[in-house]
Amino acid sequence: MAENKTAYEPLTVESIPVRLGVVEAVTRHLGSETETWQADEVGDGNLNLVFLVKSPKSTLIVKQALPYVRLVGDSWPLPLSRAFFENSTLVRQAERDPGSVPEVYHFDEEQAIIIMEFFTPHAILRKKLIAGEKVTDLAETLGNFCARTAFRGSDLFMATADKKADAAIYLGNSELMAITENLIFTDPYFDAELNNHTEGLEPLVATLRGDIEMKTAVQEMLLKFSSNAETLLHGDLHSGSVMCTDDESKVIDPEFGFYGPMGFDIGMLVSNYLMSYFSQPGHRNDADLAEYQNWVLELIEGTYTAFEAEFTHLWNTERTGILFPRTMFEDQGHSADGALTKVLQHIFTDALGICGIEMHRRLLSLAHNADFEEIEDTAIRAPLEARNLMMGRELIRQRGEIANIHALCDMARKFNEETFL
Question: Which helix (H) or strand (E) holds 339?
Answer without folding.
Answer: helix 337-364
